[in-house]
């Protein structure tokens, strides 16, 4: 009888220890999986940060190009207006010189 009781207690202790070891193994597996997931998430976040930086740089470059295009258009407008004034001045000078030459030729004749 004592032997059976001791065997029963040994079996109970064995079952308890097996369950504790099983739980510890499950916890260790859970910890490994959690660490792996955290590592994967860190990698994904790193990639997202890199993509965000690339998009931000592209948008900034695009905005810079748009600003540059706007400045170029403004400069083009200014230069075209200035060219119109210069053409007008040159035409007026040519007309004045033509009139002076015509008057000089008329005087000589």
Protein topology:
Layout: H1 2-108
Describe this structure in words.
The longest helix is centred in the middle third of the chain and has 107 residues, at 2-108. Helix content is 98%, strand content 0%. It has one helix and no strands. It is rod-shaped. The protein is an all-alpha fold and 109 residues long.
What attributes does this structure have?
109 residues, mainly alpha, 1 helix, rod-shaped
Q: How many helix segments?
A: 1
Radius of gyration: 46 Å
* Main β sheet profile: none
Q: How much strand? A: under 5%
Give the uncertain stretches in residue-range form: none
Separation of the first and last Cα atoms: 158 Å
Secondary structure tally: strands: 0
Shape: rod-shaped
Elements, N to C (H/E):
H
Task: Give a concise summary.
With 109 residues, the chain is an all-alpha fold. 98% of the residues lie in helices and 0% in strands.
């Amino acid at each position: 009888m004592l032997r059976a009781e001791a065997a029963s207690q040994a079996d109970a202790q064995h079952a308890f220890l097996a369950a504790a070891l099983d739980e510890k193994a499950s916890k260790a597996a859970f910890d490994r999986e959690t660490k792996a997931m955290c590592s994967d998430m860190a990698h994904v976040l790193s990639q997202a940060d890199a993509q965000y930086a690339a998009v931000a740089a592209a948008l900034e470059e695009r905005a810079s190009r748009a600003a540059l295009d706007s400045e170029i258009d403004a400069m083009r407008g200014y230069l075209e207006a200035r060219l119109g004034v210069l053409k007008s001045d040159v035409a007026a000078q040519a007309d004045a010189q033509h009139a002076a030459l015509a008057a000089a030729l008329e005087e000589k004749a």
